[in-house]
Write a structure and sequence with these properties.
Number of helices: 13
Strand content: 15-25%
Order of helices and strands: EHEHHEEHEHHEHEHHEEEEHHEHEEH
Number of domains: 2
Strand order of the largest sheet: 3-2-1-4-5-6
Helix content: 25-40%
CATH topology of the largest domain: Dihydrodipicolinate Reductase, domain 2
Radius of gyration: 20 Å
Shape: globular
Amino acid sequence: MERIKVGVLGATGMVGQRYIKLLENHPWFEVSYVAASPRSAGKKYKDAVANRWLIGAEIPEGVADLTVQDANDAKCALGKCSFVFSALEMDKDAIKSLEAEYASEGIPVVSNASANRWTEDVPMLVPEINYSHLDVIEEQKKHHGWEKGFIAVKPNCSLQTYMMPLHALIQAGYPVKRMIVTTLQATSGAGYPGVSSFDMIDNIVPYIGGEEEKTEKECLKILGTVKDGKIENAKLPVVSSTCTRVPVVDGHTACVSLEFDLPEDKKPSLEEIEKVWTSYKSVPQELNLPNAPEHPIVVRHEENRPQPRRDRETEKGMACVIGRLRKCNVFDVKFIALSHNTKRGAALGGILNAELLKAKGFFDSL
């Protein structure tokens, strides 16, 4: 099968570099275009990232000698790639405007950036959960007058830690009324150079700007429904979150307590909850997408798991790993969940979004 040529915007940044490496030898996609800030434009990619290649492996041969283009010039991508992954690191309004410019030129944008997450006709995808939100894309294109271009985004990285187990329970008929979440987020989530070593060594930072608002609100859009050409947010669960930065390189952990919106005699037992989680599969698994985990949710029974160093690579970094499921004295149940923030929560999650879009025919006309 001939691979689809793709571009990476923000290709020299940390997330952009992960896209470059993770797309190496992808069965469906081939990186043919890289773009970044004007200061990198005109350089070969290997020179633009010299001394700041952060991924720990060699730059893929097919990309190393590509000339970096100015990401601000959407027309430059025409004829060089069919769609782009956006890992832009700019002001949100600038990103929103630029992603729309690419879409207006007929180049779909699969975005890792947060700028369009709250745009009503832009799907914010976790492919196992809200694949039906792809239905809004045709309305998005009509609204803007775009013939081929569109925008789809992924949610904040910390949500990947608990959204699949939450969705699995709701889908199984156990709606959740309220939820308290405390996240312990890895330093890589702050990008590069990120949080200073002075702040992180022998320390925990109990605040991440904007993160609690994302944690409390984005889940409602993901669990929402498409209505009248836009996504209508869910009303429940009500979420209270505390987000912290901890001295871990990769792997976001969440401590979660849930209260079910059910009479006492209808609430699931711990055994029923575990069965729901371990049997959970969805469209990405049915379609056998290249980066879909065979087991999206993995439950561990050791009293001291999950742990970032031991469990973040489960299912190649694409699973939610859960442990310490137990009764809660305040709500109904509580558990610890872990996901790989720079794989499922960032570039590889974006690639899975693109795989879903391809499998559903959204790139057929490109």
